[in-house]
């Protein structure tokens, strides 16, 4: 089944304790992206990757890191989480990286993070 | 700069009523794509439709229809004969070809409640 998976789905942590949220897709998609969803703000892009070893900042990258060592995986790293990073996080992927044809992005199930 | 506005924060309708969700966008690009996603109470994001800027034909899919009007920069979504299962948050989103990347810019969402 074609899908985007995220782990963990729920996470409670404390300020400053490094964490990683994994994202994996099995559709051989080139483009992957991370968004956070906050009440009243919709979804905002954190980082994106147009292919292996190619990553770039989105609209709200502060406090986050990413890596794209393999095509299928795009982990989101919070080196020192703070309470303002409490949010619902979504990973997404699409077939092509962008340009004239903007492919549909398919989203993972979301990861709900609470930073105390 | 790009922007997506969903002015209706919350809408409530009685089952079987028709309802239209508004989406107004801003972009300087001549080639762009518009999307609608549904987020049911379970939290996942479900893709509904993708429309490019050169195709202004309205689209119908079952009880769902979309009205794209470039003259007013709008891409409205109508649900006919609403059902309780339509209760969700609906997001309109925009991506621009000129960025070269498949990045989505979301509106803040409209929460639809269908009352039985």
Overview of the structural elements:
The complex is a heterodimer of chains A (116) and B (116). Chain A has 116 residues and is mostly beta strands. Helix content of chain A is 0%, strand content 49%. Chain A is built from no helices and eleven strands. In chain A, strands 2, 4, 5, 6, 9, 10 and 11 form a seven-stranded mixed sheet that branches. In chain A, strands 1-3-8-7 form a four-stranded antiparallel sheet, with no helix packed on it. In chain A, a hairpin with a 3-residue loop joins strand 4 and strand 5. The model of chain A has no long low-confidence stretch (mean pLDDT 94). Helix content of chain B is 0%, strand content 53%. Classes of the chains: A mainly beta (116), B mainly beta (116). Chain A binds chain B through residues 31, 33, 35, 40-45, 48, 50, 56, 58, 88, 90, 92, 94, 96-107, 109-110, 112, and chain B through 4, 31-33, 35, 37, 43-45, 47, 50, 52, 91, 93, 95-97, 99-109.
The chain-level mean pLDDT of chain A equals 94
- Overall shape of chain B: globular
Distance between the termini of chain B: 41 Å
In terms of per-residue confidence, which ranges of chain B show pLDDT below 50 for 5 or more consecutive residues? none
Largest sheet of chain A: 7 strands, mixed
Number of strands of chain A: 11
Helix/strand-derived category of chain B reads mainly beta
């Amino acid at each position: 089944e074609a899908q985007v998976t995220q782990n963990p789905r729920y996470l409670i942590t404390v300020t400053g304790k490094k964490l990683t949220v994994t994202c994996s897709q099995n559709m051989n998609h080139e483009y992957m992206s991370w968004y956070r969803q906050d009440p009243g703000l919709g979804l905002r892009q954190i980082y994106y990757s147009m292919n292996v070893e190619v990553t770039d900042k989105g609209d709200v990258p502060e406090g986050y890191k990413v890596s794209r060592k393999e095509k299928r995986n795009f982990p989101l790293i919070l080196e020192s989480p703070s309470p303002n990073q409490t949010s619902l996080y979504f990973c997404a992927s699409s077939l092509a990286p962008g340009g004239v044809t903007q492919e549909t992005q398919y989203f993972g199930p979301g990861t709900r993070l609470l930073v105390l | 700069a790009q922007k997506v506005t969903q002015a209706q924060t919350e809408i409530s309708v009685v089952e079987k009523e028709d309802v239209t969700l508004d989406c107004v966008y801003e972009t300087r690009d001549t080639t762009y794509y518009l999307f609608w996603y549904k987020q049911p109470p379970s939290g996942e994001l479900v893709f509904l439709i993708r429309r490019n800027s050169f195709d202004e034909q309205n689209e119908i899919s079952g009880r769902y229809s979309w009205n794209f009007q470039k003259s007013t920069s709008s891409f409205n979504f109508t649900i006919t004969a609403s059902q309780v299962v339509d209760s969700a948050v609906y997001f309109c989103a925009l991506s621009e070809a000129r960025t070269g990347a498949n990045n989505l810019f979301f509106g803040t969402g409209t929460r639809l409640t269908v009352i039985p």
